[in-house]
Amino acid sequence: MPGAVQFDAVIVGGGFYGAAIAIYLTRQRGLKRVLLVERESALMQRASYHNQARVHNGYHYPRSFTTAYRSRINLPRFVRDWPQVVKQDFTKLYAIARRNSKVTTKQFERFCREIGAPVRPADPALLNLFEPRLIEGVFEVEEYAFDSSKLAAWAKRELEECAVELRFDTRVMAISRGPDLTSRVRLDDRHGSSEVTCRYVFNCTYSGLNQFAGDFPGTQTRLKQEITEMALMDVPPVLQELGITVMDGPFFSMMPFPARQLHTLSHVRYTPHMHWADAPALDPYSKLGSYARETRVDRMVRDVARYLPSMAQARYADSLFEVKTVLVKNEGDDGRPILFEKHAELPGCYSVLGGKIDNIYDVLERLDAEQFVAAAGISDLRSSA
Ligand SMILES: Cc1cc2nc3c(=O)[nH]c(=O)nc-3n(C[C@H](O)[C@H](O)[C@H](O)COP(=O)(O)OP(=O)(O)OC[C@H]3O[C@@H](n4cnc5c(N)ncnc54)[C@H](O)[C@@H]3O)c2cc1C
């Protein structure tokens, strides 16, 4: 095994969270030697690409006030910080189903007022798109989409500028205690195994949070893994400039997906293909890798077209399959708080899961409260120990 290398921080996972945290540590916190390790061959190939690309503004969370409220705070920051990736030039509609919805039209309006989110009755011309026997009300709201390819291009540029060392096609296998408050991180790539030592480890692996050997204790927060399918659709002209979400139950969402110039279609009943309780040695990436991936687009479209008849004219282009990781405690309310754990057993080791893209600000707030010392400081720590 080659000799160990010293880093201030090793970031495991090159999704949006890993990239943003690496950039934060170098730019805001002055860490100099930062290594980012990603098992794919480029940045943001997994959940940060395979998602519905919605910049949430609260509407989606009538059952979780905190998530709704945080979305309201974070959306304007996201638009300010990543104007080049945010798509705003489309009309976003939230429709309320007459049957089986957990909210009524009145409750939805009241909830929007409570979180301070703009909401107005949709233009009558847009109402005609919906089947009135199934839809109780339709609202025009302010919610945006993001272009994940542009976000990845931003991350690449910034990481290069910050001189963060990037290792692709490399998997972190184990995290263990090293000497003098350091951690040892074992990496596997096509050449074999190697080890680096560092002061801090940031586990930003989303679905892979608990898949490490060594002294890594696992997260205390229980996680649920879901294999999900979102269909990518070429929608008819009448739906082209729209995003539509039907609330709040076994319904669907259709959003522009700017990275492919198509629309994603997700359905509460058909998007989750299977799920399991997260556990070490139940590698979600291997599970998805061996999953048959038979599309359910026909069932999605059949049901969606009952509410939105013009969807029957949409052309299926592709499916995005991904493992979605959620906190077990939010199964009932659909809330998406962050997971931020500092592992006492492994000093300097953190696990982070964002839940949704705009939650990056909640993570950065937590990091602001932490103390970090750069590599030079390690010897200081040693001499004062
Ligand atoms: C179906 C679906 C729809 C969603 N819709 C939305 C939405 O509309 N809006 C929204 O804001 N959020 C949405 N999300 C959530 C959003 O995608 C995630 O919150 C966000 O992408 C998480 O970023 P991340 O960097 O933590 O994860 P990822 O982008 O998955 O990054 C983790 C990285 O770690 C790498 N990795 C894992 N294990 C290892 C290892 N051992 N060694 C090295 N590398 C490793 C992976 O390859 C991956 O690149 C959705 C998610 C899914 C799955």
* Overall shape: elongated
Q: Count of DSSP E strands?
A: 21
Structural class: alpha/beta
Based on CA atoms alone, the radius of gyration comes out at: 22 Å
Termini, distance in Å? 30 Å
How many distinct folded domains?
A: 2
At the first level of CATH, what is the class of the largest domain? Alpha Beta
CATH homologous superfamily descriptor of the largest domain? D-Amino Acid Oxidase, subunit A, domain 2
Count up the helices: 10
The CATH architecture term of the largest domain is 2-Layer Sandwich
CATH fold title of the largest domain: D-Amino Acid Oxidase, Chain A, domain 2
> Quick check: average pLDDT?
95
Helix content: 25-40%
What's the structural blueprint in terms of helices and strands?
Layout: E1 5-12, H1 16-27, E2 34-37, E3 54-55, H2 65-81, E4 86-87, E5 91-97, H3 105-115, E6 119-121, H4 124-127, E7 135-141, E8 144-146, H5 148-161, E9 165-167, E10 171-177, E11 183-189, E12 192-203, E13 213-214, E14 223-234, H6 237-240, E15 242-247, E16 252-257, E17 262-267, E18 272-277, H7 284-289, H8 297-307, E19 315-327, E20 339-342, E21 349-353, H9 360-368, H10 376-384
Parallel strand pairs: 1-2, 1-12, 2-9, 5-15, 10-13, 12-21
Antiparallel strand pairs: 3-8, 4-8, 5-7, 6-7, 10-11, 11-12, 14-17, 14-18, 14-19, 15-16, 16-17, 20-21
Helix pairs in contact: 1-5
